[in-house]
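Researcher: Re-running this chain for the archive, since the previous output was lost when a drive failed. Same request as before.
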Amino acid sequence: MNSDRAVFLDKDGTLIEDIPHNVDPALLRLGPGVREGLALLHERGYRLVVVSNQPGVAHGYFPESALAAVEARLRDILTAMDTPLSGFSYCPHHPAGQVAPFARACDCRKPAAGMILRAADTYGIDLARSWMVGDILDDIQAGRTAGCRTVLLDNGHETEWVLAPGRRPHHTAADLAEAARIIVAQDQWAAGPGDPGPTSRGGGPP
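Model: Regenerated structure tokens:
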């Protein structure tokens, strides 16, 4: 796919069910609305790029090498759905980690925007035409910092709701299917006259 627009996707709790620190490929299960949402986004020409914090590496819960099998399994699942990933990025760092050289601050761990910025450079993505979808406000801050529009999945995973200006989502959705419909509708509206489609449920906490 040669599109210059993308949807950046958090992995755990957004794309797949959230099992903390899981690296067993056999346990990967798609989250609610993922099949429908990815199908719509792919059909409309968006690149699909995963950007995932994986602090379990820094904390010693699993080796960095274990993530290769997770990525491979996720790619297999999505390719079988005809919704292939354009990219898969992860951050293995955490400033409170115990495993060198991963126990450090970095510019890639969300809410920093490093993973998004590097993916944009690699794939020629126009960030102003792209979106970040995640289930916590750190995802939203990373997307906004990178210059993307954002959708927060209001699925109960965000518990603090520290809504500083740079962390407020442009839209909220119940699941990835609704997020995809919002993204498509917003971009159709921005492109010109026509049916605006479904609208967001708002830009703040419930």
